[in-house]
Prior knowledge:
Order of helices and strands: HEEEEE
Distance between the termini: 36 Å
CATH superfamily: Nucleic acid-binding proteins
CATH architecture: Beta Barrel
CATH class: Mainly Beta
Radius of gyration: 16 Å
Number of domains: 1
Largest sheet: 5 strands, mixed, barrel
Helix content: 10-25%
Number of strands: 5
Number of helices: 1
Structural class: mainly beta
Strand content: over 45%
Strand order of the largest sheet: 1-2-3-5-4
Amino acid sequence: MSEETNSVASEASRGLRKERVGQVVSTKMQKTLVVESITRVPHPKFGKIVKNVKRFYVHDEEAKAQLGDTVRIMEIRPLSKLKRWRLVEVIKH
């Protein structure tokens, strides 16, 4: 019980970290992936569903993910100019 309370307390002190699911579009850098996340939202004025594509630079220490994989990523402290996310898991190869 105390371990569970401890982990909840540490998570609350760090703040909630954002998680995203996306597809790997580039693995050309060492220990870094580029992941595209697509969100579908209604246009504010016209109501038509439009796609928003956002690219994230993701830290992948063990180079587990490959091009085309679906992955889950989590927000972390800045590691470089562009990298602010880390790989949590590979959902689908």
